[in-house]
Specification:
Helix content: over 70%
Strand content: under 5%
Oligomer: single chain
Distance between the termini: 30 Å
Structural class: mainly alpha
Number of helices: 13
Largest sheet: none
Length: about 350
């Protein structure tokens, strides 16, 4: 598949709303995964943990790969000229401004009991689900610099893999998450630059099946082994070693799941020249849905009596439906009001 400057990226159009849907499902079920505090009247439902964990197993990596893929399209196909300054200015407007605005809304609702400086720092870092936006901002800048560097491809790969392992160290402004996700962003750029590689991999049934099996095997084994690992270690060296092992394990199954999903979509889209308008609409509102959805879910779970009224089995499904519907309506309202500074 070769691209012309005006051609839509159908694989991105179909994967972007799918990734956002998986994120909304993830957050609707996260209370059963132990990642959020339980709401009033919460009763656990063990199978729901697996829904949340499965959605998280490769979704954010796929989202970041798509961002790098689209950025590569702008650079290599549309031949857009970027400087570090122009790129930073553009992504500040597209990513950081929405992160701060929606982070302020999130903070006013959920951070009222925090100290002011603590709440302000959380908003600056990307409150709640908004952590993704400052992380992606740094991915654009670092991915651009790495592409423009004179280093050979093997050296760049080693740097990216080293960054993945260094992400076990906490850094401010989501730089630790950037170190992990930068690999996937650059991989997306590389796929756009090397379409022949995408075509060969997407047509290779053995590759697709092996990626699916690798993802499923490593993911399930990780989720089964993780609860058995101790949370505290007497030896600092042992603690670091376990952190690195866990990071490598997650990286491997997330990479396999991401590659399988992307290449499968790429293969399907080679046989199509267009998508239904409904899919294109979902793709167009997906970023806005991402911005709104977690605020809606947390309001439902922590600011209403819905968890008590619905019970544990219906709660995440109703939360999912309400969050998706309200988020889409809010996106349409923002567009109707022409609030372009929100980036939706």
């Amino acid at each position: 598949m070769s691209y012309q400057a005006g051609k839509r990226l159908l694989e991105a159009d179909i994967l972007r709303p799918l990734a956002v849907l998986l994120v909304v499902v993830l957050h609707s079920f996260t209370i059963y995964w132990g990642k959020w505090s339980p709401p009033e009247g919460f009763v656990d439902c063990a199978p729901y943990k697996w829904i949340a964990a499965t959605c998280f197993s490769f979704t954010m990596e796929l989202f970041v790969l798509l961002s790098g893929y689209i950025f590569g399209y702008q650079m290599f196909v549309q031949n857009k000229h970027f400087t570090l300054k122009s790129l930073a200015r553009n992504k500040l407007k597209r990513l950081i401004v929405p992160s701060l605005i929606f982070g302020l809304i999130y903070g006013l609702i959920f951070y009222r009991e925090r100290e002011f400086l603590d709440a302000a720092y959380a908003v600056l870092n990307g409150a709640g689900h908004l952590w993704f936006l400052p992380m992606l901002f740094w991915c654009f800048l670092l991915g651009f610099l790495l592409y423009r560097s004179a280093l050979n491809q093997k050296t760049k790969l080693l740097i990216l893999l080293a960054a993945v392992m260094l992400s076990v160290i906490s850094f401010p402004l989501r730089l630790d998450k950037t170190l992990y996700y930068l690999f996937f962003f650059y991989l997306g750029m590389a796929f756009m630059h090397n379409q022949d590689v995408c075509r060969r991999l997407s047509e290779n049934n053995v590759f697709l099946i092996s990626m699916a099996i690798t993802w499923l095997t490593l993911f399930i084994s990780y989720e089964l082994v993780l609860p058995a690992l101790p949370r505290h270690f007497e030896s600092g060296l042992l603690e670091v070693s376990v952190k690195l092992l866990k990071k490598a394990w997650v990286f491997l199954y997330a990479s396999a799941g991401t590659l399988f999903s992307f290449m499968l979509a790429y293969r399907i889209m080679q046989r199509r020249t267009c998508l239904p308008k409904s899919v294109l609409f979902c793709s167009s509102v997906s970023f806005g849905v991402y911005l709104f959805h977690q605020i809606v879910i947390e309001v439902l779970y922590y600011k209403t009596s819905l968890p008590v009224l619905l019970g544990p089995y219906w709660l995440p499904w109703i939360g999912l439906g309400v969050a998706m519907s309200v988020s889409v309506l809010l996106v349409l309202l923002v567009r109707r009001l022409d609030l372009k500074f929100l980036g939706i």
